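If you are new to this repository, start here. Below is one unmodified record pulled from the training split, so you can see the exact layout before writing a loader.
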Amino acid sequence: MPHLTSTAVRTALGVPGYAHPLVAPAQWAELARPGTPLDWVALDVCAGPGARPDPHCLEAAGRLHHAGVRVLGRLDAAQGARDHAELRHDALRYLDWYQVDGFLLDHCPGGAAELPVVRRLLAGLRTDAGPAHLVLGHGTHPHPGYAECADQLVTFAGPWADYRWSQVAEWTADYPPDRFCHFVHGVPRGHLEEALRIARWQGAATIYFTDRTGGRGQGDPWEAMPGYWDEIVSRLETGVSE
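And here is the target side for that same chain:
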């Protein structure tokens, strides 16, 4: 059953993480532009926080904080294969070096059997970080119990060819749209309006759409801004999505 969302719901961008600021300085600078409709931006220094503070990432995170943008440290849960002590160690480095506001736990498992383990990990992260914003990067609809232990869930991450025919899980209707994120790559400019309508219809208030493509040797579709960045920012600033 689709969400019956009101036009008052604010749709904003959640940025999964661009290329290193040394490689993409203009893109990171654009994120700090005042008024950009951002929910949060994920920082991935070197498959995590790296071995030491990175001056380029320190500058990029500082600019975003100064602009009032929430910065999350990206942690790779490897579908539950990574040791929790290692993940918390990385989280502490993000906190100490970059003063992050929370974490994107990417490649998070989503089954019922893994739920108690993930719940304990999130409790540990909150012990370390206080009121941290925690996003679980499932990429698909997980067991509904995950919605009770995180601030947001990424319930879709994938190509436009799949997204345009996707179905929302019925249990998500019990939660407000600001609890869900959709990340879609390969969205043609001409279908941007349709993609925004799908997100609102399915009840996801945090989105990231890009015309970049990935997989099969094409690289990471999230590492560069979409070619229609200005257009999507304008649509979200004005609330135009239909």
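Two things worth knowing about this chain: The helical segments are 25-31, 55-66, 84-98, 115-129, 160-163, 192-202, 229-238. The mean pLDDT is 92.
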